[in-house]
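User: ok so my PI wants both of these folded by tonight, can you help

Assistant: No problem, let's get them done. Here's the first:
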Amino acid sequence: MTEPPQDITLLLEKLETGDPEAAALLLPQVYEELRRLAKRFLRGERPGHTLQPTALVHEVYLNLVKRPDAEWKGQRHFMAVAARAMRNILINHAKAHRAEKRGGGMARVTLIDHDPENKGTPCEFDLLALDDALSDLAKLTERGAKIVELRFFGGLTVPETAEILKVSPRTVKDDWQMARAWLFRALHEKG
């Protein structure tokens, strides 16, 4: 007999307090969404990538539930942090692969806007170049870089991003537009 679904926010609160059963109960509640996120990340990777969605989900999940300092603000926040963790794992994987190949086989990602109202053309970039550009953007505008992480890597909507950052949706839209333009320019200049 299957367990009935539980409130994810409640499970995250239990996880924060150290409830040993919370992690086991949480996984079935977030697994499919984590898997969709992993598939989206890996879709832009090179053919023959050694990391599979299931392995990425499990590695991220174990890292997240073992964080003693985590203060989860609900499911959207959990998924945004999961997206950042997936990004970091893929960056580390790409760096290791690049070191093995001495510069060859760069991982590529497609940078698109997850906003259905935007009909922009997707562009493909080297994952490590994108990571470097995002780090440079964070030096200029930390909030802009966080918005890119939440929207692009986390797949969050403008209202969800605004809620997590505690700013207005208009601010998120303006910063998102500026950050995207800055990233596109920076990535095109690097080739």
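One down. Here's the second:
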Amino acid sequence: MHRKQSRPCACTGVRWCARCKDSEVRERHRMDDPVPMPALLAKRPPVRDTTLTESPIHFFESSSQSVPTLPEFEGLRLYPDFLSESEAGELLETLETTPFVPAQSGKGKQHYGPRINFNKKRMNAATYRGVPTYSHDLEARMRSRIQADRDFTTRGKAAIETALTAFDTTDVFVLRYQPEEMSNLDFHLDDCFAYGELIADLSLESDSFLTFFRGRPNSEIDRAGTRLEGPICVRVELPARSLAVLYGPARFEWEHAILAYDIESQRTSVTLRTLSETLRATSDGRTVIDLAHQNVI
């Protein structure tokens, strides 16, 4: 009698990490082949001069809050030193009081949010208890930084304020990345049925990159019907203690990822999301928003 071998990791489907990347391991556990990395990003791109215009790989410049070689890229604000070193240390100490659960793609996770069936487009709020206290503090600080930001265009300011109006932190996703696990977050578009426009991501412990991409065959952007120009890539350096805020085109018209070769040492991220307008209008949605305001974990 053959015993069923346990999986080497938490990956399923096309997800992968250092423990299951080998083709023999995947075949043994009947795992699908990973989605191929776009050829443009098969190797880690070197950091290039932002004045170059011929490359399909572009670089976000935090000093101007723009991509000089691709001015049509819009919908991202990056706030370096969002937390001080001591504040970041205190937040990490708080996070360490809760165990990290093994997650797909070589990551550990803590998740505070309603259960959502993405395939059936259903939400179950029965087990939802609210969000951690620190998320309210992070949201308040984010709002202050955005209000104090004087570098917006008129259109950009109006766009992010509209997104902020519909934002209440209802979902907190803490992810831990480890280089030895080849931790990664594959290219995706955050689910539009489940989540609203604005997404905020805080980087802790180490620097990394957020990579935006358009032109990947059979991507979620394709399925969303967005016009493609590609393959084309925007690389955004994420210093430790920085906050990246996505809205508008960067949220809806580009896939984004954290690539394994960009994790050089342990990185922890805290992502704040809100319910979509569709879910906010339901009775369960109103319950979730009320609990997120009133209850802290």
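Residues 55-294 form a domain with the Jelly Rolls fold (CATH 2.60.120.590). The mean pLDDT is 92. Good luck tonight!
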